[in-house]
TrEMBL record:
<keyword id="KW-0520">NAD</keyword>
<comment type="function">
    <text>Catalyzes the reversible oxidation of malate to oxaloacetate.</text>
</comment>
<feature type="domain" description="Lactate/malate dehydrogenase N-terminal">
    <location>
        <begin position="5"/>
        <end position="143"/>
    </location>
</feature>
<protein>
    <recommendedName>
        <fullName>Malate dehydrogenase</fullName>
        <ecNumber>1.1.1.37</ecNumber>
    </recommendedName>
</protein>
<dbReference type="InterPro" id="IPR036291">
    <property type="entry name" value="NAD(P)-bd_dom_sf"/>
</dbReference>
<dbReference type="Pfam" id="PF00056">
    <property type="entry name" value="Ldh_1_N"/>
</dbReference>
<feature type="binding site">
    <location>
        <position position="34"/>
    </location>
    <ligand>
        <name>NAD(+)</name>
    </ligand>
</feature>
<feature type="active site" description="Proton acceptor">
    <location>
        <position position="176"/>
    </location>
</feature>
<feature type="binding site">
    <location>
        <position position="89"/>
    </location>
    <ligand>
        <name>substrate</name>
    </ligand>
</feature>
<dbReference type="InterPro" id="IPR001236">
    <property type="entry name" value="Lactate/malate_DH_N"/>
</dbReference>
<feature type="binding site">
    <location>
        <position position="121"/>
    </location>
    <ligand>
        <name>substrate</name>
    </ligand>
</feature>
<feature type="binding site">
    <location>
        <position position="96"/>
    </location>
    <ligand>
        <name>NAD(+)</name>
    </ligand>
</feature>
<dbReference type="GO" id="GO:0006099">
    <property type="term" value="P:tricarboxylic acid cycle"/>
</dbReference>
<dbReference type="GO" id="GO:0004459">
    <property type="term" value="F:L-lactate dehydrogenase (NAD+) activity"/>
</dbReference>
<dbReference type="GO" id="GO:0030060">
    <property type="term" value="F:L-malate dehydrogenase (NAD+) activity"/>
</dbReference>
<dbReference type="InterPro" id="IPR022383">
    <property type="entry name" value="Lactate/malate_DH_C"/>
</dbReference>
<dbReference type="InterPro" id="IPR011275">
    <property type="entry name" value="Malate_DH_type3"/>
</dbReference>
């Protein structure tokens, strides 16, 4: 049986890291596509040359030709520009929308059966536009943000509690932006919800609130430190977790930007919700119950995404 084919559209910081991870985990053969000549070819060759030491079997190819992604099982999209210090994700909308158009058409024409994971920001609006431009079924197109946001939340919680990250679960809902909704109630240490841990005196509400804020600002914290771009190791790892769930039909329950059509009260929009990812793509959106405070925060976040979607329609009339 042939190895699965993984197409990475965008060979920048995240794209290169994705290629390295996909090869090391032997998820399949990798095609790295970018408009920048030499970059995908150079990164592919460099990673392939790490194969003998690492001991993986995977072919890598760099290209500027969409024909090379033909028949891909998974496409992970990072094409576009990242933000610089002082920029919000939303500042990227106009330029990255144009990129989504060409990428969506490239996927439509060459890899229409792929499971597509978008990472390009502003995430929720870009994945919405990418699905429209590609015309792929909505359950086969999703966005990576929730896995990363909840990984950041889990990391900060494990530091606060002094316990293994493996025993911390965390839940983040809503759009990938300043309005994201990290949920204390649905986040646990070994199954014990955070509000119970506050009651037990293991931490305080103030400390939890500070961690929630640090999670919301997680991307900006790294942009501020790097100065020349945004995070790439953890974003790549998060998308690989989603790709692996699809390729191995793992039925993982992961938060991601999924198409909601009535789910959690959201109509025809992509927003961060808990999902089940397996061989059918986004097999299910988990319609969790929110309390009043969470619902208000979620609604604010959905409204922010809605504003960006409307802005996309204003820029490209084919989306209206
Ligand atoms: P970067 O290293 O600049 O790579 C982007 C690549 O896209 C570059 O190599 C470009 O040449 C290429 N590119 C530009 N236009 C096209 C095109 N039309 N077709 C194909 N390739 C093109 O950025 P990065 O890898 O650091 O980040 C990529 C995107 O991910 C940015 O939009 C970031 O904002 C976003 N990002 C999202 C998250 C989420 O959690 C959602 C986290 C981190 C970064």
């Amino acid at each position: 049986m042939a190895r699965p084919k993984i197409a990475l559209i965008g060979a920048g910081q995240i794209g290169g890291t994705l290629a390295h991870l996909a090869a090391m985990k032997e998820l399949g053969d990798v095609v790295l596509f970018d408009i920048a000549e030499g970059i995908p070819e150079g990164k592919s060759l460099d990673i392939a040359e790490s194969g003998p030491s690492e001991g993986f079997d995977a072919k890598l190819k760099g290209t500027q030709d969409y024909a090379d992604i033909a028949g891909a099982d998974v496409c992970i999209v990072t094409a576009g520009v990242p933000r610089k210090p002082g920029m919000s994700r939303d500042d990227l909308l106009g330029i990255n929308l144009k990129v989504m158009k060409s990428v969506g058409e490239g996927i439509r024409d060459n890899a229409p059966d792929a499971f597509v994971i978008c990472i390009t920001n502003p995430l929720d609006a870009m994945v919405w536009a990418l699905q429209k431009f590609s015309g792929l079924p909505a359950n086969k197109v999703c966005g990576m943000a929730g896995v990363l946001d909840s990984a950041r939340f889990r990391h900060f919680l494990s530091l606060e509690f002094g316990v293994s990250m493996k025993d911390v679960t965390a839940f983040v809902l809503g759009g990938h932006g300043d309005t994201m909704v990290p949920s204390l109630r649905y986040s646990t240490v070994a199954g014990i919800p955070l509000p119970d841990l506050i009651e037990m005196g293991w931490t305080t509400k103030e400390k939890m609130d500070a961690i929630v804020q640090r999670t919301r600002d997680g991307g900006a914290e790294i942009v501020g430190l790097l100065k020349t771009g945004s995070a790439y190791y953890a974003p790549a790892t998060s998308a690989i977790e989603m790709a692996e769930a699809y390729l191995k039909d793992q039925k993982r329950v992961l938060p991601c930007a999924a198409h909601c059509d009535g789910d959690l009260g959201v109509k025809d929009m992509y927003v961060g919700v808990p999902t089940v990812i397996g061989a059918g793509g986004i097999e299910k959106v988990v319609n969790i119950k929110l309390n009043k405070e969470e619902q208000e925060m979620f609604d604010t976040s959905v409204k922010a995404v809605q504003g960006l979607v409307e802005a996309c329609k204003g820029i490209d009339s084919t989306l209206a």
